[in-house]
Amino acid sequence: xxxxxxxxxxxxxxxxxxxxxxxxxxxxxxxxxxxxxxxxxxxxxxxxxxxxxxxxxxxxxxxxxxxxxxxxxxxxxx
Length: 78
Prior knowledge:
GMP Synthetase, Chain A, domain 3, single chain, three-stranded mixed β-sheet
């Protein structure tokens, strides 16, 4: 079942990429563990002051619409 969730998360993230790309940013899926999605924001999103808002209020809520098991999202920085 975890593989199904991971594949769905990856699909959803691909759907979000064009919106982030319009602002010069991007998102990369890292892993899904303990109901938490780990991603890496890159480009303009990497240093944006609205990063937390984008993650929690936009990306997390979008993912949870189709994958209610998700409890959180974490940006993994380099």
